[in-house]
Amino acid sequence: MKGDDIIQSIKGRTPKVMGSENFKEYAILVPLIEVNDETHILFEVRSFNMRRQPGEICFPGGRIDNTDKDAESAAMRETSEELGISQNLISDIHPLDYLVSPFGTIIYPFAGKLNAGLKDLNPNGAEVEEVFTSPLKDLKEKEPELYDIKFSVEPEENFPYKSIPGGENYDWQARNLKEHFYYYEDKVIWGLTAKILHHFIEIISNKKM
């Protein structure tokens, strides 16, 4: 190929995360809801009958389908289905930073308002064990506990060490993952949910722009 042809083939591309076509993509919503004239964040407890992560605390959301217009539409659809409310009651949705996890997923978080009371929710029992809320001001005052998870590199048995500098002594620079933990009453909020919560709180506290 000539240089001009090569440039033409990449002209106008919209960049994305390399290899993202092999990732599973999810969209979630950090839902703000008014409780007794105070802004709360709503959380779900996943049904104990769920195959993945039963009983864990999460935000409404799920996998982006081919029928979804975009990630925001997926977040609205999933929130509507899981909480049993009309999408018309979800408003003021704005994106947070998306998250590429080390486990083959890309998560697109949004924050938005639920224009409904707790009594108006009808959670889908197949997916949601219960919902609860926490005052936003209480969460803003908390600093999450942080714990390191260390990853190790284990190349497969026939890895061609002779082809790389350093051979079997190559410095792989294995990384650590920081897990966030928030505690509210008898609830433990951790993992990606806590990481996204912390990111959201940093933004609204002007600590991260």
UniProtKB/TrEMBL annotation:
What molecular function terms (GO) are annotated for this protein? 8-oxo-7,8-dihydrodeoxyguanosine triphosphate pyrophosphatase activity
Q: Name one Pfam family in it.
A: NUDIX
- State the protein's name: CoA pyrophosphatase
Q: Which residues form the Nudix hydrolase domain?
A: 23-157
PROSITE patterns given for it? NUDIX
**CDD domains per the UniProt record, alphabetical:** NUDIX_CoAse_Nudt7
EC class name: hydrolase
The reply on keyword Magnesium is yes
Keywords associated with the record: Hydrolase, Magnesium, Manganese, Metal-binding
Q: Does the keyword Magnesium apply?
A: yes
Q: Which InterPro entries match?
A: CoAse, NUDIX_hydrolase-like_dom_sf, NUDIX_hydrolase_dom
List the cofactors. Answer: Mg(2+); Mn(2+)
Record's Gene3D superfamilies? Nucleoside Triphosphate Pyrophosphohydrolase (3.90.79.10)
Q: What is its EC number?
A: 3.6.1.55
Question: What SUPFAM superfamilies does this protein's entry cite?
Answer: Nudix
